[in-house]
């Protein structure tokens, strides 16, 4: 649009320059005709000199006022051009302010959304922190319970060792007494003793076999539990690695998207600056051509007035030459006409002064509005820059929160894994403690049984010794 407007203005300038050249030729021709007629009029007598002087004086006044009017018109056109330029600049400032307000609103919305996201991350981080504290508390509780169970297991082991030693001692005493009983009963019950020893040995072997089978079943259960725990831990590790990889990919994608958006914004701002510079240059060219057109039109009007004036002067001078008798009356009419023109021009000058004051007031008002819009644009640019900095800071804070959240998640997973591990160890220790309690109960029963058997064997030995003494006495008596 501005290019077509420039072409039209160039055509208008050429047309005005051509018209000005033709008018200048007419003026030159009329000036030559006036010079010829003036040489004839100077001979008409001294009576016309006073009126001619008056006419010349009024002509000078009219010409002076015409010059003032032309200058006022030129100034008015210049002020109108200034007003148009100020209106254009004001519209540009208004568009820029609207654009900055839209950008500011968008940045505020982005900042609000980012703040909400950060608050959500803070809440989630707080929840993860609370879960982590709970898991750590559970780990501490399990460690304490594990320590208590280990202490209890050690006590049971020591008790089992002492009871085992007691069982061994009682078994040794029982064997010693059994040997004594066997020795005493060897003469009368050799085969019975051999059969009884074989039966006792078989029963002991069966008991050992049963204990070995029970221990093997316990070991198989422990191995199966450990394999199951290992598989669950490997699955948890694979899930955690997959989550970490997914988070890293999402973070990289977000960083690439932010970088592409920043490059696009920079490119758009550069293109906008180029368009604004080009528009300002074209607006300057249009203003210059407008000034040139106004100057040519003003010059054309002056030449047309001069041609008309000189044509009137030629007509007046021809009439003066043809009718010298009526020259004085015509000159008086001319004086009256110039007086009317003078009064009319004075009115035009006064009106031009009023219009000039109004235009200057309009220009001052437009300049004030332009300054206000410029200040508003600067304020919005500062606000936009501040919002961009806040948005960048909020993005950095969100990234730090994401890192902290990832670390909390990893710590929580480790704590939960530790809880599972300690729970398994606790279960194993509880099972071992129960087994040791059962073993202790069994050994206590064995001790009681061996003690009873020991007492019985001691009593039997006493009876057998008495019988042996009786037998010895009987044998001795028989020998005697």
List the uncertain runs: 189-195
Structural class: mainly alpha
Which overall shape is indicated by the principal axes computed on the Cα atoms? rod-shaped
Taking all residues together, what is the mean pLDDT?
A: 72
Whole-number count of domains: 1
Estimated helix fraction = over 70%
What Rg is obtained from the alpha carbons, in whole angstroms?
63 Å
* Biggest pleated sheet: none
Q: Count of helical segments? A: 3
Write the topology of this structure:
Blueprint lengths: L1 H40 L5 H276 L4 H153 L1
Keywords: Coiled coil
Write up what this structure looks like.
The protein has one domain (2-479). The termini are far apart. It is built from 3 helices and no strands. It has helices at 2-41, 47-322, 327-479. The chain is 98% helix and 0% strand. The chain is rod-shaped, with a radius of gyration of 63 Å. Helix 1 packs across helix 2 (47-322) and helix 2 packs across helix 3. By secondary structure, it is mainly α. Residues 189-195 have low confidence and may be disordered.
